[in-house]
Design brief:
Tyrosyl-Transfer RNA Synthetase, Rossmann fold, alpha/beta, 372 residues, 7-stranded mixed β-sheet, 7 strands, homodimer, 2 domains
């Protein structure tokens, strides 16, 4: 298994431990969760459920925090299509961290990345998606006073120079080994990781002091930060601390991905209630039995049931309620149709609120875009 | 022989024809010189003397000009040290072209380039040199209304996005073959050529129409423009036309280079009259004989005499006067000391005027820096 941001791999639940070991990540153990809880009072369900499951240097980050050396948050989105439920996981966690630790958040929109990696994508398209995707981020309710959007092409005067500082310490051999590039890779894609590294130390540059950086991210993004962590101490900055989340399974089953190009694989933030109903009813892979009779008798399998998994990853934040569903479904007292109805109700209620906030975001978006 | 911007080679006069053939350049023949003269009335001495000696697509450029499709000029300087006499050759020619063709000039200062290619150079240093080098360009007397400085890190919001458009069409294989990169080359140096390509089409983007681009350049810069010429038609722009000059020999002899790091190899624009005298007297390689008696009898060799070559390349624009010196020196009636005195007088008179203009440049520099 070889997971990079640019090579899609099917990931099963059991793969995460293997990946963590292979990447050299630390797992989130009870001690470190306790250490987080000391400051946050409660643990976010994504921590309780080990959706965020691994980290790099989180202990160091919390030690620094306890010494009064506050961190800032950094995450991002490469605009290339609609936002789906899976994209929201690290962002919602980011928002919780922002609130609990009163942290500044730097949010990068590398609008050149997917243009460089996808032959058919134009800069006009990524520009359109940058706007659309920013609305989704704003809609989640981040604090506009503490949230700073960086759009790579627009903020290049701020980013490119510092990307060169990183790039000077990264060889072609390194990016080839890290991302699987070949001699036919284009020179923009080869350079790109340097642009992604910049927000790890840009706030330190702007404030003229070394500030710890904390990055919540999907585990597929870890390779970029392996490079950033290697280079940053060489140019005088802390290594960014990372916390890694699992990837929400696509509708077609655990181990599949949600994709912007396949509407039957994902729920997008702009889907209508009818689209949601149809997608869940028709395409959400079910762990139930073929007939109601058999299901009542033998029960379903929540581990492979995408509707259950989505409640677990995102839509049912109440652990007791989730447990109840788990056992009812497993025993067969809850039917697939009932489970799906429950999920549809949850999704549509979330999207109704989100879409309203997304409309309002158009008016306040400008407050989020970083002004030099 | 393998000349790139990043591998210094000793170049003899006889090598230029070989290089032109190897690179696939056209030589400036009498027909094309005539075609230039039709518009300029006279030929610059750098054209008469074949200091500018080769080109790509210059006929096409002039045809377009005759059809009313005016070109803009593009040249540049990677700041990394003092400006020496050799640097001024293409710029002085550029100024003449600007005047004769009433052309806009885009002047790029890629302040990241040498930082990326030289281990010991910092961005603070390149920033300092950017300012110093800009003063030298302004001092040459370009028209501030028609001359636009682009500083790569400062204008990155304008440049990086368009560099990505180029980069998408350039593979690692291509830059490896063109510049001699290896797997150990850093990813900033690999990407850099895309930034150098941008001014070839930036004016077309800003004015929303395809405008021919004309680049006077030292022949060592040709590799960058081979890539630009390959890519530009793929993204909807004309190939830039080029005109190539030979490299002024260093003080230590024909075939050596002037260097910013070896003060005995070059005259810098900031040298004092005493420094000029000492450098020329002590270090300018002489084609004269060991004794005055022998020189009077056998004569000197202007072909290998750096003082004569500098008059040829730069300081004696009067062809008849130059010819007189050539034959007096060759016959032995002119002594090395006399030739050197003549050159010193020429250099110091040029530098006196240049240094005065360079001081004044501090006040008007801002007019030259492109405002978006």
């Amino acid at each position: 298994m070889d997971l990079t941001p640019y090579r899609a791999e099917k990931i099963k639940e059991s793969d995460y431990g293997i990946l963590a070991k292979k990447f050299g990540l630390s797992l989130l153990n009870p001690e470190i969760l306790e250490k987080i809880k000391k400051h946050t009072k409660e643990l976010h369900f994504m921590l309780r459920r080990k959706i965020f499951f691994a980290h790099r240097d989180l202990e160091w980050l919390l030690d620094e925090y306890e010494k009064g050396n506050k961190f800032f948050l950094y995450t991002g989105r490469a605009p290339s299509g609609k936002i789906h439920i899976g994209h929201l996981v690290p962002w919602i966690f980011c928002k919780w961290l922002q609130e609990k630790f009163d942290a500044e958040l730097w949010f990068q929109f590398p609008d050149e990345e997917k243009f460089l990696f996808r032959k058919e994508l134009s800069l006009n398209e990524t520009e359109k998606w940058t706007y659309e995707n920013m609305l989704d981020v704003v809609a989640l309710g981040f604090n506009p006073k503490k949230t700073h959007f960086l759009i790579n092409t627009k903020h290049a005067s701020l980013l490119y120079k510092h990307a060169c500082m990183v790039a000077k310490h990264v060889t072609f051999s390194t990016v080839r080994a890290t991302f699987g590039f070949t001699n036919d890779s284009n020179i923009g894609s080869i350079f790109y990781t340097a642009m992604q590294a910049v927000p790890c130390f840009l706030p330190s540059i702007l404030q003229k002091k070394n500030i710890p950086c904390f990055v919540p991210l999907g585990i597929d993004q870890d390779p970029h930060f392996r490079i950033a962590r290697d280079v940053l101490p060489k140019i005088g900055f802390y290594k960014p601390a990372l916390i890694h989340c699992k990837l929400v399974p696509g509708l077609k089953g655990v181990g599949t991905k949600m994709s912007a190009s396949d509407p039957t694989s994902a729920i997008y933030t702009t889907d209508t209630p009818e689209e949601v109903r149809e997608k869940i009813m028709k395409h959400a892979f079910s762990g139930g039995k073929e007939t109601i009779e058999k299901h009542r008798k033998l029960g379903g399998n929540p581990e492979i049931d995408v509707s259950y998994q989505w409640l677990y990853y995102f839509f049912e934040t109440d652990d007791r309620k989730l447990e109840e569903i788990y056992f009812s479904y497993k025993k067969g007292t809850m039917l697939t149709k009932e489970l799906k109805e429950y999920l549809i109700e949850k999704i549509n209620s979330f999207l109704k609120k989100h879409q309203r906030a997304r409309e309002k975001a158009k008016k306040i978006l400008d407050k989020f875009i970083f002004k030099e």
